[in-house]
């Protein structure tokens, strides 16, 4: 079971641990079931470890939101360094989604459709809070901004987003069982931590 951090954002109240685990389980099962209904059309037996399977089902829509945020930057950001970073995030996380979907397919799991799973996830506000994700309202607001205001909000949203990803990656590294996925998660975590350091420097400058 993915253990999500109690309050990645101090500005929002924390959800109690028991409820948090319930939301994580509900979301993971919903995403896997929905992917099966939209993809194979019939239920597919889960052959991978539950921790690994849940991680991929949750990380795919998590990455998808980072891509959506980063797609706004070329036309709205004012800082060239932020534009460059957002382009790397968009490209790298797009490739990682494909890698995670490939892992699902190789392990007999339904392949999670990123846009569909993302929309389902936005309907669970407590869940997205604890994964460090932006709300639908925050995403809508970001899309209205430009210049330094966009730069500030992009960092305000993407930093906790990366922090949530790091926590999820740490969990699957510690508790998952698949060695290929473990290596994939370690590589992702190195990238996320490096990008976090860059964004924190940008935010403090």
UniProtKB/TrEMBL annotation:
<keyword id="KW-0732">Signal</keyword>
<feature type="signal peptide">
    <location>
        <begin position="1"/>
        <end position="45"/>
    </location>
</feature>
<protein>
    <submittedName>
        <fullName>DUF305 domain-containing protein</fullName>
    </submittedName>
</protein>
<dbReference type="InterPro" id="IPR012347">
    <property type="entry name" value="Ferritin-like"/>
</dbReference>
<feature type="domain" description="DUF305">
    <location>
        <begin position="52"/>
        <end position="202"/>
    </location>
</feature>
<dbReference type="InterPro" id="IPR005183">
    <property type="entry name" value="DUF305_CopM-like"/>
</dbReference>
<dbReference type="Pfam" id="PF03713">
    <property type="entry name" value="DUF305"/>
</dbReference>
């Amino acid at each position: 079971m993915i253990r999500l951090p109690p309050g990645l954002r101090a500005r929002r109240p924390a959800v109690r641990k028991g409820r948090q685990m319930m939301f994580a389980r509900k979301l993971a099962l919903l995403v896997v079931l929905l992917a099966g209904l939209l993809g194979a059309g019939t239920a597919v037996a889960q052959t991978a470890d539950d921790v690994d399977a849940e991680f991929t089902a949750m990380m795919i829509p998590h990455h998808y939101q980072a891509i959506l945020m980063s797609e706004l930057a070329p036309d709205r950001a004012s800082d060239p360094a932020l534009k460059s970073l957002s382009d790397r995030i968009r490209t790298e996380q797009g490739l990682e989604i494909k890698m995670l979907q490939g892992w699902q397919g190789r392990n007999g799991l339904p392949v999670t459709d990123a846009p569909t799973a993302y929309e389902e996830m936005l309907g669970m506000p407590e869940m997205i809070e604890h994964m460090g994700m932006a709300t639908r309202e925050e995403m809508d607001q970001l899309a209205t901004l430009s210049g330094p205001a966009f730069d500030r909000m992009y960092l305000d949203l993407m930093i906790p987003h990366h922090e949530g990803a790091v926590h999820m990656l740490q969990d699957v590294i510690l508790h998952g069982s698949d060695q290929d996925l473990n290596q994939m998660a370690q590589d992702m975590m190195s990238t996320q931590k490096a990008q976090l350091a860059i964004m924190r420097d940008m935010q403090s400058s």
